Structures are given as C-alpha cells and as structure tokens.
Amino acid sequence: MIKTSFSFYFFNNIFVLGPLTQKELENLVDNIDLDQSDIGELSSEDEEQDLTTHFAEDEEVEQIDSSSSDDDLPLSHFLPARKKSWDRTVKLKVHSFPFFNDAADVNRVLEYPIKYLEKCISDDFYEDIALYTNMREVKDKGRSFETTSDEIKMFFGVSILMGIYGLPRIRMFWSREMRVPVISDNISRDRYFGLRSRLKLVEDDKISREERSLDRFWKVRPMLDRVLKGCRQNKRTEAASIDEQMIPFHGKVIMRQFVRGKPEPVGIKNFVMTTPTGIPLDFYLYEGKGSSLESALTPVPEKLDIGGRMVLKLTDTLPAGVSVYTDRYFTSIPLIDALLSRKLTLTGTIMLNRLPKNATFLKDSDLKKSGRGSHDQLVRQDSNLNLVKWFDSKPVHLASSSTGVEPLGTCSRWSKTENKYITINQPAIVNEYNLKMGGVDLLDRVIGKYPMRARTDKWTIRTIYHFFDFSIAASWLEYREHATSLNYAKKDIMDYLEFKLSLGKSLIHSANKSKNEENNIEEEEDELPTPRKQRKVEPVPDKRDRRKGNKHLPTFMNHQQKSRSKCRKPGCGKLTFVKCTSCNIFLCCSVERNCFELFHN
User: What pLDDT sits at residue 13?
Assistant: First the structure.
C-alpha cells in the first residue's frame, strides 16, 4: 500500500474510488494492513488526530470547505462514532444544583393526632361517603340506608380499633366470649357489615363510559385525589426515594399484579415516592399494561421501561437539586441522563443487563481475591455518571450521577469463617444508598403494624382501607418528625400504637357527641318516658376533645341509676354519681376529690 498526498489509498494495486456502502467501508478498513514503512514519518500529534479524533462522540466534526471533495477525507470519517467510553482514571463531576424549597415553615406547636390526619382525610370525606351510599341504596332497593357522616366516622373509628385488637375474625368482637365493649356498644354487628358492603365514593351514573375506560380506579378516585393532595403538601427534602408498594388483594381484578420478593406479592401495585424518613410525597396506582406513564416535564427517552417512566412521572413534583434513590427495578443509564437534564441526580442499584457493553468491570474472582469490601469504579468519558461494583458477600452493581467511591468508609459484617464481626471497606455510594433508600420500606412497616384488614371480595373496600391506613401512617411519621424538631423528649412522643388508638377514640367520640346532642334535642321536644337500656362503657375522650370550649357540666345520675359508677380519671377509680354532660363519663366532684376539674384541665 502506498500513501499519496491526496489521502487516496491503493490496495493490492486497486484504486479505491466512488461511493461505497457502510459495510464495504468497515471491511476495507479492517482488511488494510498498515506497515510502518508505508506510514512514513508521522508525528505523534498527527497520528493521534488522524486515528482518534473522528471516534470521539462528544467532539464536533471539523467543518469541511465546500470547494474540497469527500475524497480528501480519510475512510475513518465515514464510520459511525464509537459509544462513550468508561475509564478508571476519570473523576466524577460533582453536581451542585441549588435546592429551593417553597414549603411554609413548620408550625411551632405540636398538634393533636386528628389534626395531622385531616390533611388527607377531612370531614367532607365522611359526608360524601354517607351521601353516595344512601343514593346507591335508593337506586337499588328504593329506600335510603339512612347513614350519616357521624356513623361513617364511627365505622372507621371502630375499624381502626379492630386492627389494633387483631382478633382472627371480625364477628368475635360481638360474641359473648370475646366481646369488646368499645366496639360492640357503639355499632351493631349487622350494621357494621351492612356499611362495609355498601361504601360508595362516587355516583356511578355520572361517570361516563369513556371516563371508566381511561381510569380503572374511578370507583375510589375521590379518595385517591384527597390523599394525593395531602402528600403533595408535605415538605420536599434534598433526598427522595421511589419504590413499589403492594396493596394485598387476592380477588379477581384486572389491575392485580404479582411482584416477587415482596412480603405481600399479590395485589394492586402502588408506586410511592417518600422522603428518607418515610413521609410520602407522591404516589401512582398502576393500572396494568397499557396505562399512560408519561412525564409532563421531560420527553421520555426511547426504550425506557415502566420503572424509568414511573420515576420521570413521580419526580415532576420535585424541585431542582433533589437527589433521587431507586432500586434495580428502576435504575438505568437513559433515566439518569434524563433526570440530569432537569437538574436532578439519581443513585441506585442496577441490573447487569442494563450495564453498557463497553463498561468492563474486574471479574468476580479477582475482586474476591482482593478480599471482602473490594470495589471497582468506572466513570463515563463526560464525567457525569459512574458505575461501581462492590464485592460484599456477593457483587453489587450501582450507578450514580452524584456519588462515587470516595470518600471510602467502613462497615461491619458478620464473617462465618472467623465467627465474628469484621470491618470491611464500604464506598460512599453504598453508604448513601443505604441511608436514603429505605423511606418506602419504612412507610410499609408502619402500615403493616395494625392494618385495617378484613376478608372481602371487593377491591374497592380493600383499597379504601389501605389508603386510610396510608394516611394514618403518614400522619404519625409527620407528627414524630415535628415533635423531634421541637425537641420533645422521646417519652413524650406517642408511638404508633398510641397515635392510632387516639385517632380511633377521637372518631368514635366525635360521632357519639353528635348523637348525644341530637338525642338531647329530641328529649326536649318529646317528654314521653323511654325504656331503660343497658349501660355501655363510654371511651375516654382524647385530650383535644376534653379541652375544647364545650359546655362540660356535671350532672348527678342518682335519679337514673341506683348504684354509683367508677370515676374515669386515670389514677382515681373511686365511686361517684357525677357525670360530665359533654364527655359522657363519670368523674368525682366533691369536697374531697375534684376529679372533674383536673380531668378537663
């Protein structure tokens, strides 16, 4: 081969001229055997420019003069540019996007539990259920079910307490052997099951066929919108995690999914975005194959799977500067690049089949020889993204646009061979992922403590129960974070059991209070004697209710009952005839013991 001054090439005494196909060009370059004598005296700079420049993807192609011919260009110019390379010597670019949070400052006063719940579920929610439940009953049977918003409150308050007591069957709460007075005295068994089977959130006739086809969750959409609105009011933090959440349901419904590895693998899938402390920021119920998962801010890259599309959709409500954390189901290279265009970084574990083919890590055997805690890092040519392979008990692959290996830390692991805990190296990306990825798992653990579960074939009832628990768990996590920020002692902060028990009692007491007021009005209008009923144990009202500006007046019950009742003030237990007209419980009110005043203060 002879090199000419016109950059034309002779191969085997054949002059190459004329248009060639892409495949012919590639074969020609591969078959040409360059010899040192043919190359001549090329400087290192010229050689690097001729052989390397045209393969760099990020560099601009040199402008060609219009008078020059394509024959003046080397054959390598016509070949496609190589993909971005990965190198161990390149340093990751540290992205410092400014983070702005427009949320209002946290209230400096710790609220009562019911106040935190009202962010997602307010009083008009119960009113709507009562209205649509009665309308549906009139349409089906020609008569109203005659339920009210107070009775719906009672229903949910009782359901909360059922989840706390946790009897294996619901009917046991009314049985003679296992009867629970706070439940059985406030609502009858048949009424409870009647309400549960008739709960309606919408008027079916007003939902068109087109709307039903576009939204498979139209039957519970009002509740989803309320809870979602409350979640989006929560304060945004500099880190957010996204993961899947399952609503357990084994009945027949088109939205049912199966997710291997979850504690409840069968049910309705819910994609949730939370803070690292578990407070939900956004969620999306997955309707199944064919559902629209398009982001309103970012064009969806080609070949992006469901997980990546969901991350783009949920992060639409995040401000710039937030670091997002996902697991291997969501993480991919196109997703990280798409979030970087919106000034959002992402860190997460990644599947092997999503790693670039030109990113070659050290073999598992080599890392294993180096010892537990060894790692290998590859940084992309543009320094915007890095891949890390960390060998613990088995290799783990991670990808990030914000964190790399440095600074290298340590962690403790159990060694079977040495039969003790050992200290191994841990890259910074692993530590960051472990600290900030568990928000959704924490929310799931709280929901699973005392869930409102019942055997039912209706997916709507199961979804309503789940999102009521979802709202209570979110309220407690917000309450706990608020109390911690106000420097409350740990003993003064209610745990989840106390918090949920207080909510159940508040809903029951609120319903009983309205019922007593109505009964007092009816007694004033009708002076006819009423038959004597068996006394029932009234629940002690929450502090928020007993300190309200209501008319808490003592009344003597010796004209209605023969024997005295125990004082309900904690720590007393003496016998008395005095009863509070508002709280509807017995309290001492005498010269020796003034429990009535102490209880309400």
Answer: 44
